[in-house]
Amino acid sequence: MANSMRAEHSTLGGHSVESSANTIQGADVFRLPNAIVLADANNFFASCETVFNPQLAGRPVVVLSNNDGCVVSRSAAAKQIGIVNGTPWFKIRDQAEHDGVIARSSNYELYASLSHRMMHVMSGFFSHQEVYSIDECFLHNTMTRARTEQTCNRLRNAVLRGVGIAVSVGVAPTKTLAKIANHWAKEHPASHNVTFWTDILHEYGDDVLRSIPVSEVWGVGRRITKKLMSMGITTALDLQRADPVLIQHRFSVLLERTVLELRGIPCVEDASNASSGVRRTQILCSRMFSSPVRGFETLSQALSVYAQQACHRLHRQNSLCGSVAAFCSTSPFSKEYSRIGNSVILDDPSDNPMVVSKAACDALRHRIDEHAPYIRAGVMLLDLSDAQDFNTFEGMDAQRDEHGIGNVLEIATRRFVPRRVGIGYGGLRGAGRNDADTGATWTMRRDMLSIRGTTRWDEMPIVHA
DNA sequence: TCTGGGGTCCTAGGACCC
DNA sequence: TCTGGGGTCCTAGGACCC
């Protein structure tokens, strides 16, 4: 599919020949100038923090990554005082606190819950929704220009009223252009947070793409930017005008598709597996430790906890894994950086946390340096297959865990909350209120965690009337 | 002192087969 | 003694996204 698409576009040199059929069906829908609607929450994590804590509205708020490491989301006010995403918190903490910045540990349980509500509300306004990330979705549109604008505004109001989150909307013929239109909507208050690509193109012509550095185009990362710059391609307009065949040759089909998308030719396919939820092809669970861990004994505690968490996700999508990989590493910022990884093939595909946990530990057992300070570790489940499809000869069954410990864990998790029970260290809970708080020294730091008002009875917000 | 986590897709290159 | 070329499959690594 992707290949035939590429061949077609490459040979046609940019503009496709339409078939005579003008039916609003299948791929033809996406040839319409307003076919793709991208709805994206403004400063999502920071906005979520404000939902149940309205005093934060208008104030500089930042949300930190796990372990309170880096800034990952900023409110408008925090952006205004010049805080940059990705900055390590320890480097700016003093100044930020002096400036009245309020920091929060990331509260993914809250964000996931609000994301779910937001997506549900938005799904009602268009025929097809493709959830792209926790805070944005593509909506497929077949309405007229006027109807589309009306619908986008109703969608924005519904999310704002129903969930308390502001979203911006970009409308364009392709996803890449919708990203650009969405960005424009966020940057230009006059747009009322809904921007049509065709409008800004009509008003500003080539200046729109000329004003966008190539590094800001969706799909262009740091490495590719550097290489493009050396070829004299510095703006989105330069990339749009580049030869797709040359780009494909020097880079990849991915970037070639970006060139075509910038020209208004849709090439990025639907990535979501309908609305029923996506089945992952690999599952990774990894964390940084709050302080360095030495020795296999302690490391295996962490591996065991991560393996159980990974199995929980494996079970949820009804898959089995054929192999388990584990890794650990010292700090990449230290002189003696080392990373150790190894994988183990299971005798039979399994979703049993006991089996997976043991495999993860076995993978690293005799490989680690007993004295090295490890700062992170992770467990990866690979070679996933559908549990229902699994058939072998008699006597060679999958190591399924039908009535065993995994199911007991699932049931207990559903009835109580995650991590009230578990194997080994995964079952211990310390005094703190953090999910992963096992009382061990390595569990992650979340010193500034807000309430999980939508998922925990004991943390429900209190309203004073 | 202190720098996130979880994914996807593509490509190159090796192994193997005929 | 000489030892082609093309296809397929797999894996590791690179690059990207949010």
Explain what you see.
The chain is of the alpha+beta class and 465 residues long. It is built from 16 helices and twelve strands. β7, α7 (175-187) and β8 (194-196) form a beta-alpha-beta unit. It is globular, with a radius of gyration of 25 Å. It binds a DNA duplex (18 and 18 nucleotides) through residues 44, 64-70, 72, 86-91, 93, 106, 108, 132-136, 218-224, 252-254, 271, 280-288, 290-291, 331-333, 376, 378, 444-445. Residues 36-221 form the UmuC domain. Keywords: DNA damage, DNA repair, SOS mutagenesis, SOS response. It holds the Pfam family IMS. One of its GO terms (molecular function) is DNA-directed DNA polymerase activity.
List keywords for this structure.
465 residues, DNA-binding, Alpha-Beta Plaits, DNA polymerase, domain 1, 5-stranded mixed beta sheet, 4-stranded antiparallel beta sheet, 16 helices, Dna Ligase, domain 1, alpha+beta, single chain
How many β strands by DSSP?
Answer: 12
Our estimate of the beta-strand percent is 15-25%
Tell me the helix content: 25-40%
Spatial strand arrangement across the major sheet:
5-6-1-7-8
* Name of the level-1 CATH class of the largest domain: Alpha Beta
Say which CATH homologous superfamily of the largest domain is assigned.
Reverse transcriptase/Diguanylate cyclase domain
Average pLDDT over all residues: 83
Number of domains: 3
Distance between the termini: 59 Å
> SSE order in H/E notation?
HEHEEHHEHEEHEHEHHHHHHEHEEHEH
CATH architecture label name of the largest domain? 2-Layer Sandwich
* Quaternary organization: single chain
Largest sheet: 5 strands, mixed
Spans of at least 5 consecutive residues with low confidence: 1-27, 273-277, 427-432
Structural class: alpha+beta
Shape descriptor reads globular
Count of alpha/pi helices = 16
What integer value in Å does the Rg equal? 25 Å
Pfam family, one: IMS
Organism: Bifidobacterium aquikefiri
Family: Belongs to the DNA polymerase type-Y family.
Protein name: ImpB
